[in-house]
Amino acid sequence: MRALFVVSLHELRSRLRDGTAVLITLVAPIALATLFGVALGGDDPPLRTTIAIVDHDGGEFPASVRREALAVPELEDILTFRDYTDENAAQAAIDTGEAGAALVFPAGFTDSVGAGRGGEMQVIESPDTPLAGTIARSIVDRISALVDARTLAAKSVLAAGMPPEQVKAYVEENGARGPTLELAGDPLSGGAVDLAVYYGSGMAVLFAFFVAGSSARSLLTERQLGTLGRIRAAPVPVWTAPAGKAVVGFGLALLSMCATWWSSVLIFGESWGDPVGVFALCLAHTFAATSLVMLVASGAKTDAQADGYTLGIGFVFAFLGGSLVPLYNLPEFLQHAALLTPNGWVASGLTHLASTGEGATSVAGPVAVVAGIGVVAGTLAVYRIRKGLLA
């Protein structure tokens, strides 16, 4: 372990003396994250959405819901309604992306609510369209409040002795004929992610490859200078040099990700979500990035070739994984391809944390997958380095 400590310390000193370590670890990712945040920051997603209406009732209540919802200032520019004949047609529209969610009004709903008997309606959602689901649930929450109020009013007048046939007319005369739909607060507040957060995390994920890649490049340089040969002749384990460089690359990459995260929060005031969850994703991605660059470097012949491999894997994974372009802007097949990269899982996990406010356990899946990628890549890297660079 002492030999590993000495090699790691020497590598760290060399990186700091070189000056590029500070540039690619701190200056470049923070500067680019800030520039992207200033230029493109704002609520995500800037989308329009369609909610399907299945009206088995045909009464005033569903029509009034539609009018009132479209009159809400927060919704007027993003929401449209579309009619469908039944639940199957609405579900098919959601599956094809024609609609994001559906509201189903059963037969007799208007009469039941008007008579104070209450009523039940159905919401059909899809995990692929959280914006539509958020709006649909907000509408239903307000409808439920109105239905409860009318039911209570009807029961009160019945208890006071009013004939049942007069209850509906009385309730309508003393309240709105349809629902007065005023959505409390911003219905999108639970599903929005500021693009400053998205691009800040994207730069952090991208530069983790470059920072760790510098250590992989250094390993090739040591071989060209003959240092690895001298280490093999010394009374220390042969894995000391690559392990020491990997440790330094991992540490600096983790520092880079955390510094970009903290600077983004301080500059833009936008949280990335639960700190424990964010750190777990950063830790897992740093491990995966270090393992991947060591793996690709193990097949390089020169340090320049190792640089090329690192740049290639960094930018390809960044594009496919949503670090440069938001995943929802990519074609569907590329959105699926993103799950083959650690970037895609980290982007998904960080978006979930930032948009939902849930804790670290909610991203246990992405953390496990990214760590698994690191284990597989690291195992292959150890094998190839032993058979190649250290042979």
TrEMBL record:
The chain crosses the membrane at residues 21-40, 196-220, 241-264, 276-297, 309-328, 363-383. It is a multi-pass membrane protein. It is found in: Cell membrane. Keywords: Cell membrane, Membrane, Transmembrane, Transmembrane helix. Residues 22-383 form the ABC-2 type transporter transmembrane domain. It holds the Pfam family ABC2_membrane_3. GO terms for molecular function: ABC-type transporter activity. InterPro entries: ABC-2_transporter_component, ABC2_TM. GO terms for cellular component: plasma membrane. This is ABC-2 type transport system permease protein. It comes from Saccharothrix ecbatanensis.
